[in-house]
Design goal:
single chain; alpha/beta; six-stranded mixed beta sheet; four-stranded antiparallel beta sheet; 10 helices; 14 strands; 28% strand
């Protein structure tokens, strides 16, 4: 059974704007799936229809086999939603927000209170359980929303820009936690503008452009299709670049240069030629995100 099956989904707003133009999309059960697109591409509309916040114009959607038209309540129980905007009561205590959310899914208070302890500890908010939400930092509020989305133990977690406004340390901590959730069997559907998150965590991704899915593939295969990488190389001293001319070196400063790699196998050749030219390498890393290059190329097409 797939987590999500979308067939010929169309959404036309009263203004005449056609936000979705016959979208077909399948998300396998247990997948870590990314939905990518520029602002206004249709991501939020698609998620809104999935979660019942937006009505569709036509098409079919099944969530773990439940048709959202015929059995939305069953479909809704399968989903935990973490929206982009904070939408909880800022004057409630952290634990109360999580426990009260469970009540919407018919979970009794005693069970919800017990489960909230484990979830809040996992997201690093247990020490803040008695704090009012308004006193939390932006990163903590994000984690609170994830805890709230997980309290009814959904089979799928939908995350709309979950790390927006979160500092680097917290972002990496959330990556680790979300990967653990996924490894335990929870399907994750993620939208994000941080494409390194997709490269690090997701197995499949789709790119939506102007209301249409223009690319759907495994992240691994997509990365293999990127023909060229730019690497930044830091060296002890800058010497002659003649020996590495085939890599189109660009001198940045007296200790830094950028080089182009056409294939992964060429890394060894580059390192060998740098050594033969007398360079002492002190740092070596990809300059940019490979998936980002592909994404930008698709948006420009």
């Amino acid at each position: 059974m797939n987590a999500i099956e979308v067939k010929n989904l169309v959404k036309t707003y009263r203004t005449g704007t056609k936000a979705l133009k016959g979208v077909d999309l399948t998300v396998p059960d247990g997948d870590f799936f990314a939905l990518l697109g520029a602002n206004g591409a249709g991501k939020t509309t698609l998620i809104g229809i999935l979660t019942g916040l937006v009505t569709k114009t036509q098409g079919e959607i099944h969530v773990f086999g439940h048709n959202i038209n015929d059995d939305f309540e069953a479909a809704k129980k399968c989903m935990g939603v973490v929206p982009q905007e904070f939408n909880f009561n800022m004057f409630e205590q952290v634990q109360d927000i999580v426990v009260n959310q469970a009540g919407y899914f018919g979970i009794d208070y005693k069970t919800a209170f017990k489960d909230s302890e484990e979830i809040l500890k996992r997201v690093g908010l247990w020490e803040k359980r008695k704090s009012m939400a308004r006193n939390l930092s932006g990163g903590m509020k994000r984690r609170l929303m994830i805890a709230r989305g997980l309290i009814h133990h959904p089979r799928m977690l939908i995350l709309d820009e979950p790390t927006a406004g979160v500092d680097v340390e917290l972002r990496h901590g959330m990556w680790k936690y979300l990967s653990e959730i996924n490894a335990s069997g929870t399907t994750i559907l993620l939208t994000t503008h941080y494409l390194e998150e997709v490269e690090q965590m997701c197995r499949h991704c789709a790119i939506i452009k102007e209301g249409e899915i223009v690319l759907l593939d495994s992240v691994r295969h997509l990365l293999m299709t990127v023909p060229q990488d730019t690497y930044r190389v830091t060296v002890k001293d800058m010497l002659s670049l003649e020996g590495v001319r085939s890599f189109n070196p660009v001198k940045i400063d007296e200790h830094t240069l950028d080089v182009e790699i056409q294939k992964r196998e060429e890394l060894n050749e580059l390192i060998l030629k740098l050594a033969q030219s007398g360079f002492v390498i002190t740092d070596f890393h990809p300059k940019g995100n490979r998936l980002e290059k592909l994404f930008l190329e698709i948006l420009k097409a």
